[in-house]
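Quick one, probably user error.
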């Protein structure tokens, strides 16, 4: 019961902020969508990259001690996409809308605080390692999937590596490996800016939900269930292979059970890739995490 209360204490604010965006958009109607376009661009190009950079460049993150855990995160993300692909084809969903959210879970704004609640402050570095692994897969393979069949135009490798998110990720890794640090005041300022993207993304998700029709709820429910199940299936397959220590093993299962990330909706909005359907997947997925996150914790803690 205590674990459930802690989890609901993180998930319910997520839903409340999204509901606030929904209600505000209903009052403002069509004018709010034009206003949110600039806000979404700011989140994707500035605020979210800063969140990633400060998470990786912080003193608590050590890439050297998390090699096998990072590998687990990469394989879970890739494997989840691979398992979700035939499901999308079977149900006649657009693979570009359904598969990327299955690969990129909410390991940032939900996974990091959940790891601290479940494992204490010592669990934060492991959670940051998984967040990095998941982001690396999504902003390489995931973006490639979204761009498939889009007027024959694909982002070059150089342009992909020069995107704000990839620059932030690579910069954070360099800072971690070389033990570099920014002046304390500058680092905390960047961290505050990065953290501001979390409520902004949730509010924008609520705004987009005003466009969700009843036909989107089917894909939303399926996505909410498939994302944690394929993640947990991959974690179970890797459990006996990687030989992770108990603490990292528990983190792996928690990571695998997380719902799709809110950022998936932001990218779908930017690419005009059925953002209403992706919004339904994200919102219902975060609601379903009240069931699947405790399951992930139980699997991680069991002998």
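Nope, works fine. Designed sequence:
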């Amino acid at each position: 019961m205590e674990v459930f209360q802690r989890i609901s204490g993180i998930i319910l604010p997520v839903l409340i902020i999204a509901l606030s965006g929904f209600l505000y958009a209903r009052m403002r109607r069509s004018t709010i969508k034009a206003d949110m376009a600039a806000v979404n661009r700011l989140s994707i190009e500035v605020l979210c990259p800063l969140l990633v950079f400060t998470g990786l460049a912080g003193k608590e993150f050590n890439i050297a001690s998390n090699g096998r855990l990072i590998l687990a995160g990469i394989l879970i993300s890739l494997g989840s996409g691979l398992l979700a692909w035939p499901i999308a084809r079977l149900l006649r969903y657009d693979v570009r809308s359904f598969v990327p959210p299955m690969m990129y879970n909410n390991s940032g704004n939900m996974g990091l605080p959940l790891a601290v609640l479940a494992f204490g402050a010592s669990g934060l570095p492991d959670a940051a390692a998984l967040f990095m692994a998941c982001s690396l897969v999504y902003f390489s393979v995931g973006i490639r999937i979204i761009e498939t069949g889009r007027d024959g135009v694909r982002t070059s490798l150089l342009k992909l590596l020069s995107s704000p998110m990839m620059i932030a990720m690579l910069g954070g890794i360099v800072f971690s490996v070389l033990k570099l640090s920014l002046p304390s005041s500058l680092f905390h300022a960047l961290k505050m800016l990065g953290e501001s993207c979390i409520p902004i993304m949730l509010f924008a998700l609520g705004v987009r939900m005003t466009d969700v029709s009843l036909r989107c709820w089917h894909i939303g429910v399926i996505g909410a269930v498939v994302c944690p199940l394929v993640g947990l299936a991959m974690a179970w397959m890797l459990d006996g292979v990687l030989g992770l220590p108990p603490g990292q093993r528990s983190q792996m299962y928690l990571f695998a059970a997380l719902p799709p990330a809110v950022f998936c909706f932001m990218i779908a909005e930017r690419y005009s890739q059925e953002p209403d359907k992706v919004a339904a997947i994200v919102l219902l997925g975060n609601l379903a995490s009240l069931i699947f996150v405790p399951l992930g914790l139980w699997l991680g803690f069991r002998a």
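The mean pLDDT is 84.
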